[in-house]
Amino acid sequence: MPPPMLLQQLLLLLLFLSCWRGVTSSPTDDSVARTDHGDQREPGFEEQHQDSYSYPFPTAPPVDPFARIKVSDCGVTKGCFRYGKPGCDAETCDYFLSYRRIGVDVEFELSADTDGWVAVGFSSDKKMGGDDVMGCVHDDNGRVRIHHFYNVGQWAKEIKRNPARDEEGIFENNRVTCRFKRPVYVSREETIVDLHLSWYYLFAWGPAIQGSITRHDIDAPPVSDHMISIYNYEDVFMPSAAYQTFSSPFCLLLIVALTFYLLMGTP
Fold first, then answer.
1. More confident residue, 19 or 27
2. Is residue 194 exposed (0-12), middle (13-18) or buried (19+ Cβ within 10 Å)?
3. pLDDT grade, residue 86 (50/70/90)?
4. Which spans does this entry mark as compositional bias, Basic and acidic residues (predicted)?
């Protein structure tokens, strides 16, 4: 039987070893503790975090290079002039023009059945000569550019100072169509008129050669029958020459008389 002193020493040694094991822990236990308590992430956090960078950035939707002209706004929020077949619109009329005020500018939309150019002139009378003209010209590269002209007699001279801005243009279905803005008020100059005043509008279109305009398609292009104010939104239709004959009151009366004569017969 060991002496009491030796038993006491053995008991102290066993107690010391048990306490030491309780204080220390293995690296595996420590990592488990950190996983269970120190990192309070939701399941799948790492996968979500990594996958968030794998998706491509969204691309912008395609933009229509030229917004179609709305004829339903004619006479309501903009003024319009149509020349051609009765019931035609901006895509079927021989010539179409619209105007509307936007702040300090006037926005114009022009379209014509041509592969060359379409224009509008601002005149103090109904005759060509001494007129401020804005034209949209289709060049050999397929682009439609806005040009500024001044009528010298029957000749349109291009002017370097161009008041047009926010220009858009397209050549499609054998039509030249464009949209641009121009200031209402401009500094006093012979070749540029103030649009807050009323003017006769000259409508013209025709072929172009290498981006240069040539003579208009018809000998007597249509002209507004009264001075136009940008503050009054009108919706005006003018029949083209092919439809003017039957719209004339005299011709209608002649047709009625001839029909009556044929029905009644000769005596």
1. 19
2. middle
3. very high
4. 31-50
pTM: 0.68
What is the C-alpha to C-alpha distance for residues 205 and 120, in angstroms, rounded to an integer?
9
Burial class (CB in 10 A: 0-12, 13-18, 19+), 72: exposed
Cα distance between residue 184 and residue 131, in whole Å = 16
Q: Chain centroid to CA 139: how far? A: 20
Q: Tokens for 94?
A: 């021989």
Tokens of 195: 């649009």
Residue 233: CB atoms within 10 A of its CB come to 18
Can you give the pLDDT at residue 216? 80
Q: Greater confidence, 266 or 220?
A: 220
Taking a C-beta distance cutoff of 8 angstroms, is the pair 148, 133 a contact?
yes
What token pair was written down for 104? 């300090």
Q: What is the pLDDT of residue 249?
A: 59
Token code pair at residue 222: 């249509």
Cα 99 to Cα 120: distance, rounded to the nearest angstrom: 11
Handedness of CA 186, 221, 214, 208 (dihedral sign): positive
C-alpha to C-alpha distance for 118 and 206, rounded to whole angstroms? 7
- pLDDT greater at residue 51 or residue 143: 143
3-state class (DSSP) for residue 21: helix
pLDDT of residue 27: 43
pLDDT tops 60 at residue 49: no
**CB–CB of 92/68 below 8 Å?**
no
According to DSSP H, which parts of the chain are helical?
4-23, 27-33, 45-51, 241-247, 249-264
